Records
---
Amino acid sequence: MEDLIYLDNAATAWPKPPNVYEFAIDFYRKTGVNPGRSGFDMAIEAGNIIEDLRVRLTKFFGGDENVPERLCFSYNATDALNLIIPGLLVSGDHVISTNVEHNSVIRPINCMVRDQGVEATYVPFNKQGYVDPDDIKYALKPNTKLVIVNHGSNVLGTVQPLKEIGQICRDKGVLFAIDSSQTAGVVPIDMKDMNIDVLAFTGHKSLMGFTGIGGLCVREHLEIKQIRAGGTGVRSAYPYHLAEYPFRMEYGTPNMIGVASLLAGQDFIEEEGMANIHAREMKLARKLVEGFRQIDGVIIYCWENFDNRLSTVTINIEGMEAGDVGIMLDVDFDVATRTGLHCAPLVHEQLGLIPVHGGVRFSVGAFNVESDIDTAIEAVKEIAGRVKR
C-alpha cells in the first residue's frame, strides 16, 4: 500500500489533507451527537458546525447568501440528483441532458421517462468532448422544463460551458441544474453568474471530504417538490414533512463526521487556493498526456487541447482490453486506475468503446507528484510493448 500510485481521484480523492482527518476525528470524539435535536451544549455545538458549513458552501457555490438554509445535505451527488430530478419533473415535461452524463443523472431521467411519462433528449458532445450550447438551444421544446448538465466529465475531463448554457435557459424560461461532482473544489462555480437554478455536489472528491456526504444548493426562486418524509428534530407533532428549507430536502440524522470533513476541506481549499490546486493537477495531467502521445498503440480520447479541462485522462491500448490493462497496471506496477464504462455509458457509446468494454482512466489528484506520472507513463509504455503489431 505504501508504494501504491493512486490515480483514481475522479472516483474519490485520496488521501485527504491531514487537517481533514484531524478535525473530523477530533470533532466526532468530542461532539459526535445529533444536531438540532436537544438543547445541551454538545448538540448546540454540532448544530453550529452544520450551519457554519451551509453558509460557507452557499458562498463557495455562488448561491443566495441570504438563504443559506437552501444548502441542503444528502448522502452524495447521486442522492441529491434523485431529489432534484423527480422533484422538478412531472408527466408531460421534457428534459434535456447530455452524453457526458454520469448514471446519477441518466438513470433517474430514464426512470422518469419509463414510469412518469417524461420526455428526454440527450445532446452529444463534439470531437473535443464539449457540448455546444447551440445544440441545447436547438433541442428546446415548448414543454422543456429542465436542462441538466454534468459540469465536468468523469471520463474525458472536459469542463462544459455552463454560463452560455445557463443564459440560454434563462432566456427561454427553462430551469438549469448541474452535477458538479467532478468540478466542485477545483473549478470556480458561481450559480448566480452562470444562471444555475440548482446544483448537486458530492463531498468525497475535490471538496476533500469523506464518503457519504453531499448535497444540493437551491436558488431562492426555485421550489423543489418534497418527495421523502421523516424525522427533522423540530415540530415533531406536525403530521407531515416540513415544507421549509433545509428540512424540505433533509431527512433523519445527518452525517456529522461527513459534515466535519467538508468543513475542514473548505479550510484546505481556501489555504491552498483552488486555482493553485487545479494548476498543479493540470501540470501533471499535461505531462501524462504528452508522455502517452509518445507511445505507439496508445489512444487518448478528446485531449486535443488543454483548455477548460480537468486532470482526467482516458486511454486504451490497441489490441488490449481495458480491464486487462488495468489489472497489469495494478499488479505489475502498483498503479491504481479505473477501467470500464465509468458509470457513464453514453460517453463510451458515442466514442464507440462499448465493444472493448470502455477505457482506462487516469485521474490526477491534489497529492500526486511528478514521479507518480513518470511511473504511470513507463508502465503504459511497457504494457503497450507487449502487444504484437
---
Amino acid sequence: MALVLPCLVAAAQTDGGEEAMGFSRVVRDPVSAAKGFAGTASDNNVAWAAFGNAASVPMSSKNFDAAFSFQSWAPDLEAKTTDLSLGLSFKFSDKFGATLGFARDGGKSFTGVDDSGNELDSFTPSNMMLGGGLGWRFAKKFSVGANFRYLSQKLAEGVDCSTFGLDVMAMGKFSDFTAALGVKNIGGSVDSEDGDSYDIPSSVVAAASWRKVFSEDHGLEADLDLDYFLSGNFTAAFGAEYGWKDMLFLRAGYHYGADKAVLPSFATVGLGAKFKGVRLDFAYLTANDDIGGGLTLGLGISF
C-alpha cells in the first residue's frame, strides 16, 4: 500500500471504489502516533487540532499550544516519505479557540524516461496539507468545531493535483471522560485523465477519552477512536498513556485497519518528557508489509 501515489491511482482499493491522497489520514502528532493514532477526543494535546478536532481547543486547559514534528514513514519501502509538520492552537477566551496546521512530505526520488527513452532529471514527489479551524464552547460541557484544509500532491514533473477537505466535530466533557462525534476529511475528490473521480478518505468518527490523575505522581489516559469510512471500510484505534509527575510519559497503542482500509493494522509505542511547558515526544510504529515501520519525533511548548 503506497501513501504517495499519482492522482489517478488510489491510496487504497476499497469495496466502495478507490480513494486518493491517503497521506491526509496519517497522524503527525507524536503523542497520538504513540497511541495507535487514537486521541480525537483528548483535550490534553491540542497543538495538532487542525488535523483532528477543532472542538477540543476551547475545552483545553491550555491557552497556547504549539509543536513541530519530524516523521519517517515506511522508511524501507517505495512509499517512503520524510515529513515535516507544524501545529498551533490558541484560545481567544473561555469560549473560542483557533488552530492552524501545515505538513509537507517528501517522497523517494526517482528518474523517469520520456517517450523517446531519454532519461529525465531526478524528481522527488511531495504532498502538502495546509489548514485551520475554529472551536466554540457553547455550554459548560459542550463544544463544536470545524477545520478546513487544502491538500496537494506532486507525483512527477507536470503531474499534480489538489483538493479540499472539511472536518466538523462536536464534543462533550463530563468530569474525567470526554467524547467526540463528527466527520473527517469530507468533500474532496480528484479527477483522472479519463474522467474518473476518486474521493479522499472521508469518515464518520466516534471517539472517547478518559484521563485521571491519581496523585501528584501518577496519571493515566486512555483513548479510543472508531472511524467508518464512506468507502465502506472501518478502522479502530486504541491507546493509553501513563504519566509520572506530569514530567515523564510512557505510551502504547494499536491501530486496526480492515482489509482494504486506507491505513493498515499496526502496534505503536512511545515516550515523552515535559518540563515547564516544553515537551519532547517520540513514537514508533511497528514494521509490517504495508508501512515498513516508522518513527515520529516532536518538540512542543504550551502554557
